[in-house]
């Protein structure tokens, strides 16, 4: 245990903690402004925005000795007896000087800059800058340079913090970005013929503290102050990166990684980042239909529970194919629902999409080959209901043999997974119920076509490939006609009020030992389910 | 003065002074033989420490002390970098040594490597010195032939290889960690310290970086002894515990408006006036001197009244200069405009700032923009305050930058304006009679292209 003094406040640090002045000041509620420092990148101490005064307190006498010069907070470790002063006149002058310097050549084109509203240069200028310009007035220049398929560079807005350059060297390991020229004529650039083109490229836009790096996918789509941010979990692969979903009026505009040291640290991949457009795809299923004597007829959601109850009760043996895109709570409720109609209903995991192999990056980041967020969570629920494993193939074989009469399939897949092969084997079933986002061969032949929802419209929990459970709430409402899968199960199970995944998870945690750790409040970064209780990765 | 005998320049002027034959005929490589025969590395470090030899590259750090910062009993390689990126404006003493007496440099380097247990040495040579490259390489080749380099040097358990590496014309490569980055093939952005090179330098291994003239002093200290070295120069000020003294001979580069510019060897502590009068033959064209740069442009300015201060490590500081620097004295005669002087100085540092730290990158660029505007007849008195604020803010001394480049940019600004303020004010009032009182920002000049 050590004591660090920040602006007169005594802060305790543990012996094994390795904090710098910025981190320890944050603990004292003091924000030390900085551009170049990022916890996930090497320290270069070059922006000089985080300069503070430092000294040491003698353990014996309690006397404080200050160092005469300013030091960068990012590079100065906080140890027992460290003293930091972040609000002296000297520190304030140095910050104002750095801000002033950065703005000499900055175009100050905030009205047309995507970063406005979440820009460090803007915020720090208001807080720490000079109140008036003292440098000569320059004509406005804002050169734009293409650096890759996903990212564009506004050259004159750059403050040369070099975070993007370090990211491509240290995390993606691709080293496309570099600094050219020297002194005040420095610019970020790429070599001819080697654009910024890697699967982590979008992170450099998040890292950019100013509006220099723009995301082509997001550029000029929204002013950031119109959007609301929601904590979410990326459903693109089984890594389950913590994300922030930025939306305005039920339209998702952007996904950003959310810091989670247990899962994705500060990063996410471009597959996930740009993989939300299907949410607003024109091809989303919104027509609720049941098979009629000739073709299909429209029905209302209010008619669905009763109609399903009649059909499923008379279909004989039932089976459920639970998609790895459903949440833990939905999987649990669907299993309960089918067992309500048929105590021996077969339950199996739906198709698990896999593409290629896991992709590892030098910054200890992995894109998983398994392109669904919750296989492990669904498997754990199924293990509770089934005891042993029932496979997709078992279910389909029993449908073909006539042993199973009613099948409930769930989707949520972005790529066709409920394919012709499955559809062929379902022809003998008396009742086929499908909940899905996009059409598929199974949907084409279903008796009940129930439009389902996308990840940003769901609430609940996913368990990632490492057994880490994260809970999240919906960010946008589903399109008219689609309905959250879980809410239908909730209603059919005659639960009171609105669908409440939180209470379902509490019940799961109390019932299924594998989910013990999910009892109580789930922090925004999730909880690790105890590893021994989890099944080994398939 | 009269008893002073030049040693560093003793061979200069001899025919074929750059060959091993001529060097050895004057007693060359006897120090190396003595060291390898009689001494242990620790003994050499002790001798150099006792001699109070301070680095000749600019900062004046005690050389022996620097060598002791290397980790003891380090199992891996230790590297030695010879800083021959002599790029401080006005400085050419390393060039003289490397062109005309490369074996003196190599002997000092080999002994220094023996002392520090370095087995590989890199000479980082500025690219503008092609003749140095040629002569050093030839001298290195001669040393391999003579058994002064390579495996088991002179039959002792000591091996050394020297590689000559050419820079690419950047001032920042003279900063020791900028040099190391450049040597490793990277952009020469100085590293943050700690760790210092003695702990983590070239290829992240313990490294010593010394200047050419510093190592050239070492053979003479070995040959002539510590008392000889201590008998030359200015002793430490007993009232100042931080003064490490200024001992030994020094190569002074005299240039500018004097009759006989050149590189002259003198005891540390000679005054600017003695240098101009005794060596330089006085100010040219019968004019009077107005000022002088004491040790390379980055050290600031001495006015003519300050010419009697000793040019030792502590002297220029007494006149608010940054220090002795490289002891490159540039004399400005009475016709020189201080506005032009400062503009040229700012232009240099703007061009050479590596661009890593915001205060240096933006401060050097802003200062040259203001001076260009002043010279274009659009100056304001307020600009002088802004220039001084830049000068007082940027640098490793106030702690706002990683390396000392911007201290070098700051000192000429501070010294020129503070020491010649009336000249600046008169110039601004005369050339901008209607606008000199303006305090609001004015329109910038079109950006000029900066070349060499």
> Share of helix among residues of chain B?
40-55%
- In the CATH hierarchy, the architecture of the largest domain in chain B is 3-Layer(aba) Sandwich
Radius of gyration of chain A: 28 Å
Helix fraction of chain A by DSSP (H/I, runs of at least 4): 10-25%
Shape of chain A: elongated
The count of strands of chain B amounts to 11
Report on the architecture of this protein.
The complex is a heterodimer of chains A (538) and B (452). With 538 residues, chain A is an alpha+beta fold. Chain A has 14 helices and 28 strands. In chain A, helix 2 (89-104) packs across helix 3 (120-128), helix 8 (328-341) runs parallel beside helix 9 and helix 8 (328-341) runs parallel beside helix 13. The longest helix of chain A has 16 residues, at 89-104. Chain A starts with a strand and ends in a 10-residue tail after the last strand. With 452 residues, chain B is of the alpha/beta class. Chain B has 16 helices and eleven strands. Chain B has helices at residues 20-25, 30-38, 41-51, 63-68, 93-100, 102-116, 130-146, 176-183, 212-224, 226-230, 272-279, 338-352, 358-378, 381-393, 405-419, 421-431; strands spanning 79-84, 120-125, 161-166, 207-211, 233-234, 246-247, 249-256, 262-267, 289-293, 302-303, 328-333. In chain B, helix 2 (30-38) packs parallel to helix 6 (102-116), helix 3 crosses helix 6 and helix 14 (381-393) packs antiparallel against helix 15 (405-419). The interface between A and B is large, with 38 and 39 residues.
